[in-house]
Batch of 2 targets.
Target 1
Amino acid sequence: MTAPAVSRPAAGGTAPLLEVRDLNAYYGQSHVLHGVHLKVMPGEIVSLIGRNGAGKSTTLKSIMGVLESRTGSVRFEGQDLLKLSSNRVAARGVAWVPEERAILGNLTVRENLELPPLRPGGWTTERAYEAFPVLRERAHHSGAKLSGGEQQMLAIVRVLRSAPKLLLLDEPSEGLAPVIVQRIGEMLARLREEGLAVILVEQNLGFATKLADRHYVLVDGQVMDEVARSEVAQRRSALLRYLSV
Ligand SMILES: Nc1ncnc2c1ncn2[C@@H]1O[C@H](COP(=O)(O)OP(=O)(O)OP(=O)(O)O)[C@@H](O)[C@H]1O
């Protein structure tokens, strides 16, 4: 089946915000994604789960355009992202928080927060401080001196300045204390209520299943399974098997 030129709502439904079809991605000669398909509806949190090396981060990089060697189709609000540079993808409303939490270690928390241009509807510094008061307390500390949890909070709220419609989060819970993971989860749930859609790459099944509306299981660069929130309880052992090494 060929992809339509512009995504249309299914009868009686809403059009996907993001629709990925037959996505293949390459690092040089190495073929890493093999026909990935997924979709994200507006205001939906979707998780990508799978073992190390399954291709989760590569899927986010391919959507964002930081990995350019790709074929297939990535449509965002009906527009093909594969032709756009990562800056243009960002300007259309996609924000990416990489696993390494791209904050600037030599700048203070406030400087980190104020560097990205504030777009209409984006998070002001004050709103960031209200969501995570610890960032106000650390306003004049350099990014490098923050704990892992504080860095993750900062990395997320600073991309919200651009008022994205879709947030790509790469393992936000990795290495963080449970209480911080919970705060981040609560913030993401609130953002969903405001209409933000999220693709959450996770190995922490507990965090992913608490938060996400649907789960895609990646195995060797392919989507092997899709599990809705309502199916998680009965399919938990299958999900755990997919993640076990
Ligand atoms: N820069 C790179 N150059 C070459 N191969 C890469 C590069 N980055 C990742 N890979 C390979 O691509 C495959 C998918 O990696 P990817 O990082 O997307 O996996 P992942 O599911 O996100 O797992 P992890 O949690 O370990 O990051 C792996 O085989 C990995 O070794």
Note: Strands lie at 18-27, 30-40, 45-49, 70-76, 79-80, 94-97, 166-170, 197-202, 214-219, 222-228.
Target 2
Amino acid sequence: MAEQVPNPVTGRDTLHLARRLVIKIGSSSLTTPTGVNREAIDSLVDTIAAVRARGTEVILVSSGTIAAGIHPLGLGKRPRDLATQQAAAAVGQGKLLAEYTASFARHGTEVAQVLLTAEDLIRRTQYTNAHRALNRLLALSVVPIVNENDTVTTAEIRFGDNDRLSALVANLLRADALLLLTDVDALYTAPPSRPSSERIAHVVSKADLDTVQIGRTGPAGVGTGGMVTKVDAAGIATGSGIHAIVTSAQNAEAALAGEDVGTWFQASGRRQSARGIWLGLLAEVQGRVVLDDGAVAAVVKNRRSLLPAGITGVEGAFEAGDPVELADAVGTVVARGFVNYSSTELPAMLGRHTVQLREEFGPEYQRPVVHTDDCVRLPTRARPRR
Ligand SMILES: Nc1ncnc2c1ncn2[C@@H]1O[C@H](COP(=O)(O)OP(=O)(O)O)[C@@H](O)[C@H]1O
Ligand SMILES: N[C@@H](CCC(=O)OP(=O)(O)O)C(=O)O
């Protein structure tokens, strides 16, 4: 996945040059206390149709299934427990998709329901499948409507918010920009309910966010991550060469026309694999291996695989295949990786050379502890200390 196609979009004024856009819309913009808001859907769909008419492919990431299931199930408010959220999502998903299907049909456009789990973006085979299927849908002129597969995800491996999912989808599909639509018109210097808060028009680097105060979810009470996950999502996108815009659903048309609305997050980094982004930023690590100085240099500087000989300690309980942290002797996390051995197997292997391990335990113990391709090195400033 190393292809490096330059992004034709350089700012708001060139957004019309985007070849591919991911548009994410939040629950609060799509639903009312009595279910799906048909007018809001028609308005979004009309905007998407206009963008597609100018030759831009669009992938829609739509939340709202849990919110859409609240009223039909007589729940009153957003359920808190996972099982009821899953039940509400299963009911709401059908209702939401029926509205999208009817609304896009007004433009003669087919839609496809694509339900993804976090696993689908981190496991190689699923990742390739998702990539291929979504690209095929776009080639067939279909609008994929993506959501997290709420009904089957477990608490452990769940995005829980579609903001970060949409950033990973933008990355997976090499989109040029990500539009995050919510119930507030921009990122503000503080929660917009505070009279002194001011709109932030541009975010060029992380330092622009240093003094921003980010509050909880909006007043509708159906959103999930609030502004925090939108800013996270924008960071994931921009860090991999994709511009991001946060604005309200009402401003979608103006934002896509390049007008000065919302908050524009300028792309900075180079494109990365979704798997690498997940591992580096999102994965919940199950444990830690402690490296001696030589191993830190080999893994971080020379980009080698981690061998048992350079490990001095193992912390936490993990299985082979789990994500773990790689820390130096003073507890600074220098990398994250998928580990090839469990926390019960590893202690007997520490400090031993590959040849010894093969002779003593068998040829399957020749594998590195973390292969270099399964390892994401953390930038110095992002490294957490113990
Ligand atoms: N600094 C901030 N700037 C803008 N909005 C903020 C800020 N802090 C908190 N918010 C809240 O985040 C809410 C949007 O998040 P959320 O409710 O999860 O929406 P969605 O359902 O669209 O994902 C806004 O309604 C706003 O009240
Ligand atoms: N998958 C969930 C989405 C949760 C979510 O991210 O909600 P939101 O904060 O409104 O974008 C649903 O469809 O209800």
Note: The chain has two domains: 12-278, 285-382.
